[in-house]
Amino acid sequence: MNTSPADFADRLRARGRIIGYWVVLDNPVGTERLAGLGYDYICVDAQHGLLDYKGILGAMTAIDARGTAAGMVRVPGNDGFWIGQALDAGARGVIVPLVDTAEEAAAAVSYCRYPPLGVRSYGPMRSGLRIGPAPAESNRQVACVVMIETAQGLANTAEICATDGLDGVYIGPSDLTIALGGRTSTDTSVAEKFEAALAKVAEEARTAGIAAGIHCPDGATAAGRLAQGFTFATVSSDLAHLEQAAAAHLRDASG
To answer: Is 48 a catalytic residue?
Structure first.
């Protein structure tokens, strides 16, 4: 499914069909196993996941050890420090949460690019082994993706997608469901509004010529979203699958 991690940002920008996996556990050995399964990228969740910077660094090293998947990081926030640190650790792209306006999207882009295209500070302590280290080369090989997950972000999707240098947008389904009036992150009473929101984001990304991604609870859902017009999708998470597999084996063993 994947080619070279070095081509990841280019394939994302070209709106190629890309499938990833989500990691929330600080478990480099497990992450290394996942990185060799054939996913195009492994995204480490530094916002809600259970990793600190050493965990991010360990995960990026583990992903690179397999040499097939690109490492991404969902950073804690739209901040130059967090974004720069994730990229210096070797991430080939970042997913930036809670972006509500084009101005905020432009700030995220600037944190991902070295001058004169942005304001990223030069210090590729590890990323220079895999990305760059020439600033122009690094700028090309790093993807900047922002999340659409609030009512304000949804209202401003067209303007966000038109942001110069932005590579993609990414739906956070849990927050977006709540933003649309859901009582829980999976409230089906807002399903119609939710599906309309997804169609809006996918279409406005297509119009702007950038990638459109979404987090999915399973592979079948990911296949459906890709068929609907999303260009990349992430499948579940290591913690969710660990619990599901253990519960299934317990049921089987218990008769």
So the answer is: yes
